[in-house]
Write a structure and sequence with these properties.
Elements lengths: L2 H11 L3 E5 L6 H7 L10 H16 L9 E6 L1 H5 L1 E2 L2 E2 H9 L2 E5 L11 E2 L7 H10 L4 E8 L4 H20 L3 E8 L6 H17 L7 E6 L8 H5 L3 E7 L5 H9 L5 E4 L1 H4 L8 H19 L2
Parallel strand pairs: 1-2, 1-11, 2-5, 5-7, 7-8, 8-9, 9-10, 10-11
Antiparallel strand pairs: 3-4, 6-7
Length: 297
């Protein structure tokens, strides 16, 4: 089996969850602050990204971080282009840890309109996909956000996500479709109804070999996305924590059978640059175990 086939098999059938390590320029200062590094610790964007790469490297090289409980890791583009323990990041993740490498490809969110935030244009996406494929990346992730239960806005989000998703499939990668519903959406359940109907209609239009993953906000109704999980074109359905605390996110996730976590802030909650390696690894191990257990229901 090729690396891609082995990785696809793992994504589809193994137990575990996805570690989201893809904070970008806008969210990096907050991620570092939560990690105990204040903004006066760097004087340029380059130094900031050096610091966040050190944080990510510490996580990825921890003995707690292995493919036994982690299916995949989502990487920021700069992380893909850097090295971990002397190896290109994707090679390190799969070769040393048996963790599937996935790349965040979106360029951030556009201004809100019709109660949603679409993705900004990605004019160089084909070049990025070719580079990612060459570096051993399995799949991609791209995020847009639903703020209101607005049918026109949600239709636009689904159309954009699946149009770009098919472009990613054509490049030989598996896209994670991520239309996040804001947990503060005033009619969250109604928004989820509209979103699921749109997703199922779009899934039914995919070709036999067009496989996608879905990354969705933990829903108001348990097992709400069961039809998506069962769909022949869906390799896996994962949940984002969306601002819920780790305990709350884990509790909600455990009630949604067949859905697994793809947590970012909830994964790194409690980790600190000031911790000794023993304390850091112990905290990360406990975090990984709690998310793993919630993911295998």
């Amino acid at each position: 089996m090729s690396n891609f086939d082995q990785q696809l098999e793992k994504i589809r059938s193994a137990k575990g969850f996805i570690a989201a390590l893809d904070q970008s320029g806008g969210s990096t200062p907050k991620a570092l602050r939560l990690y105990g590094i204040d903004e006066d610790a760097w004087s340029s964007e380059e130094e900031m990204f050096d610091l966040v790469h050190q944080m990510r490297t510490r996580i990825m090289t921890s003995p707690a971080f292995t493919g036994e409980r982690i299916l995949a890791a989502i990487l920021f583009e700069m992380t893909m282009d850097r090295e971990v323990a002397g190896k290109p990041t994707a090679d390190y993740l799969w070769g040393e840890k048996r963790v599937v490498p996935i790349l965040k490809v979106d360029k951030g969110l556009a201004e809100e309109g019709n109660g949603v935030q679409l993705m900004k244009p990605m004019p160089d996406l084909d070049k990025l996909l070719a580079r990612a494929k060459d570096k051993g990346i399995f799949g991609t992730k791209m995020r847009s956000v639903v703020k209101q239960a607005n049918a026109a806005g949600i239709d636009a989000i689904v159309a954009q996500q699946f149009e770009i998703g098919r472009q990613i499939c054509a490049a030989g990668l598996v896209p994670i479709i991520e239309p996040e519903v804001d947990i503060h959406c005033p009619e969250k359940a109604a928004a989820e109804d509209l979103l699921k109907a749109g997703i199922l209609a779009a899934l039914d239009k995919l070709g036999e070999n067009e496989l996608v993953m879905l990354k969705l906000t933990l829903p108001e109704r348990d097992d709400f996305y069961a039809e998506c999980i069962a769909h022949k074109n869906v390799a896996r359905v994962v949940a984002l924590s969306g601002g819920y605390s780790r305990d709350d996110a884990n509790a909600r996730l455990a009630r949604n059978h067949g859905m697994v976590a793809s947590f970012s802030r909830a994964l790194t909650e409690g980790l600190s640059a000031q911790q000794s390696d023993a304390a850091f690894n112990s905290m990360l191990d406990a975090s990984i175990e709690s998310i793993y257990q919630a993911s295998i229901t």
